[in-house]
UniProtKB/TrEMBL annotation, chains A, B:
<dbReference type="Pfam" id="PF00583">
    <property type="entry name" value="Acetyltransf_1"/>
</dbReference>
<dbReference type="InterPro" id="IPR045039">
    <property type="entry name" value="NSI-like"/>
</dbReference>
<protein>
    <submittedName>
        <fullName>GNAT family N-acetyltransferase</fullName>
    </submittedName>
</protein>
<keyword id="KW-0808">Transferase</keyword>
<dbReference type="InterPro" id="IPR000182">
    <property type="entry name" value="GNAT_dom"/>
</dbReference>
<dbReference type="GO" id="GO:0008080">
    <property type="term" value="F:N-acetyltransferase activity"/>
</dbReference>
<keyword id="KW-0012">Acyltransferase</keyword>
<dbReference type="InterPro" id="IPR016181">
    <property type="entry name" value="Acyl_CoA_acyltransferase"/>
</dbReference>
<dbReference type="GO" id="GO:0005737">
    <property type="term" value="C:cytoplasm"/>
</dbReference>
<feature type="domain" description="N-acetyltransferase">
    <location>
        <begin position="40"/>
        <end position="175"/>
    </location>
</feature>
Length: 175, 175
């Protein structure tokens, strides 16, 4: 947890200049109705507490996955994006997303999650905007994902198109 | 082109033991009707002549892409699979595919191409079988791709399912 140690051991006024992988978004800018005093911050730092991440995924009802494999997936993702609620000197992981990529043409976004307590406040949109901004800054032209039926409309509002020109997302299952 | 130098400078009987990323499939096993004497071989070697790859992609009418970016994409793909026709001591690149991955859960296959002269001989299927075997050997459980409309049925015969459980492949376009 080197990142947070750095963040909380320095004064607020200097921390942002010392941590390059950190970006703050005020509750208002993120479109959230959180009580004033809370801040919503985003990071691409990969030094994530895997148990805290598991807790977040549990909260939305995902099947548990071996932490050894989650660790490997995070290491080998092109982008790892986290969203945090910061209140005083406490921080809480409230959102996560990651992307695989060839670092040149394509990126595919996986494992987008926002804690239920923070849903319907525009924070999913804020997280996705952060992810897209990061991918575009790396000159990735083709950003893709596989959306569960109940979030297809959400991604549509973000500018994603389902089956463009008849292109079909397909999953392989052994015969 | 270190791989092929090694391959062709050693006798046939020892070459396969010296090159680990090389796998041979007889024309018959690959389901091809190529004249006898030809062999179809597969490799995961990344030391590909980018001009030869561009020629292959030109042959199927793909838009040209900057070779600098193609090189980067190959370097950062999880798997790069090539298919070659070998006749005597000549070899010709006749197929290509690659996959991005988080090295743990997901892989996405991109840029599957078979030279028009070698299509409708079961070689696309042989190439995909080779790719799937390699991905499965790395314990990747979720293999995905985005299929153009005219190849959706081809991938169906390989065990791919479009929109399973209503999951939609989506592409992002800037507003």
């Amino acid at each position: 947890m080197g990142f947070w140690k750095t963040w909380f051991s320095t004064s607020d006024s200097t921390a942002t200049t010392k941590t390059t992988s950190f970006e703050e978004m005020s509750a208002e800018a993120a479109g959230t109705s959180s009580p004033s005093g809370d801040r919503i911050v985003f990071s691409t730092e990969r030094d994530i507490d895997l148990y805290e991440l598991e807790e977040l995924c549990d909260a939305v009802g995902w099947s548990r996955r071996p932490l050894r494999k989650v660790k490997k997936a995070i290491e080998h993702s092109f982008l790892v994006a986290t969203m945090w609620q910061v209140r005083g000197n406490q921080r809480r992981l409230i959102g996560f997303a990651r992307a695989t990529s060839d670092h040149a043409f394509n990126a595919t976004i996986w494992d987008v999650v926002v804690h239920p307590d923070f849903q319907s406040k525009g924070l999913g949109k804020a997280l996705m905007k952060y992810v897209l901004k990061k991918l575009r800054s790396e000159e990735i032209s083709n950003v893709t994902l596989f959306a569960d039926p109940h979030v297809v409309d959400f991604y549509r509002t973000m500018g994603f198109v389902a089956d463009p020109e008849g292109i079909k997302g397909m999953f392989w299952y052994p015969h």
